[in-house]
Design a protein that fits this description.
Helix content is 49%, strand content 4%. α1 runs antiparallel to α2. The radius of gyration is 35 Å and the shape is flat. The N and C termini lie far apart (73 Å). The mean pLDDT is 76.
């Protein structure tokens, strides 16, 4: 990525310098600087587009396989009692085959959070209070 950024920067700086030099004789210094900055931004961004198009046309070069480049989203099959897998812990690390740590006797077991159900209040009571309040305020 550093090399690709340096290509974009060099192209942008070249456009800035050339635009500044050619705009300086006919314009003020500030106008020439602004036009040079515009040229820098346009050519810097255009370099990304051109490099992306070349990459699509020529094909992507093969990348080296290293740790962290891919995610394995496949989960292992669960052991069922029919298959004789009862009592065997699921491995914590499938690559090394290390077993999952067993819970100790003093550890609390998982229990799902139980949220109490909210009961619906009587709508007629709320509606009558609302009507009474509106009538009372409209009289004042």
């Amino acid at each position: 990525m550093i090399r690709s950024l340096s290509i974009n920067l060099s192209l942008g700086l070249t456009a800035f310098i050339l635009t500044f030099i050619f705009a300086l004789p006919g314009n003020l210094l500030s106008v020439s600087l602004v036009r040079g900055c515009y040229a820098f931004v346009i050519f810097f961004l255009a370099a990304f587009v051109v490099r992306w198009a070349f990459q699509l046309i020529l094909g992507k070069p093969p990348e080296e396989e290293s740790t962290g480049n891919r995610v394995d989203l496949v989960t292992p099959d669960e052991a069922t009692p029919d298959e004789g897998g009862e009592g065997q812990p699921m491995p914590a690390n499938t690559e090394t085959g290390e077993p999952a740590p067993q819970p100790k006797e003093g550890d609390a077991q998982f229990s799902p959070l139980l949220i109490p159900r909210l009961e619906k209040q009587d709508d007629a009571y709320r509606t009558s209070d609302l009507v009474h309040t509106i009538r009372r305020f409209s009289d004042e």
